[in-house]
Design a protein that fits this description.
This protein has 6 helices and 5 strands; from the N terminus they run αββββααβααα. By secondary structure, it is α+β, with helices and mostly antiparallel strands. It folds into 2 domains: 28 residues, no CATH class; 92 residues, 3-Layer(aba) Sandwich (GIY-YIG endonuclease), CATH 3.40.1440. It is globular and about 35 Å long. Belongs to the UPF0213 family. GO terms for molecular function: endonuclease activity.
Length: 143
């Protein structure tokens, strides 16, 4: 009979816990891998915070993934190292081919939903217009 911790370790990779300080009780692991501060009474969003809608591809005209985040560099890095099991890890989707910046989370969410409803050829045409060679844009934003 396996203990709960042994069962949990079979399904989860807790290597990201090393990033968390064990002495700080206000830091907890995120399900997406990065450490997040625990907020009991969250404060309003700071002015000037950016929200990103991004498209990842496995290769040119390959599998596409559309997502939203407030920290584009961290999120794409998580996709690249395949930190979280799921669609992008299963299909090798880790190449940032397009992103759009928004000031308001509601407008970013609306754009993400709009893009997800688009037909595939509309999405590839959008990427072709902005990034004709389907270059990985991660190196340009991570420096």
């Amino acid at each position: 009979m396996m203990l709960f911790a042994e069962q949990r370790s079979q399904y989860c990779d807790y290597s990201f816990w090393l990033m968390c300080s064990p002495l700080d009780p206000n830091i907890r692991p995120s399900f997406r891998g990065g450490a997040k501060r625990r907020a009991r009474n969250p404060q309003p969003q700071a002015d000037g915070m950016a929200y990103y809608v991004y498209i990842l591809a496995s290769r040119k005209y390959g599998t596409l993934y559309i997502g939203i985040t407030s920290d584009l560099v961290r999120r794409v890095y998580e996709h690249k190292i395949k930190m979280v099991p799921g669609f992008t890890k299963r299909y090798g989707v880790d190449k940032l081919v397009l992103f759009e910046v928004f000031d308001e989370p509601a407008s970013a969410i609306a754009r993400e939903k709009e893009l997800k409803k688009w037909r595939r050829d509309w999405k590839t045409r959008l990427i072709d217009e902005q990034n004709p060679n389907w270059d990985d844009l991660y190196n340009g934003i991570s420096n």
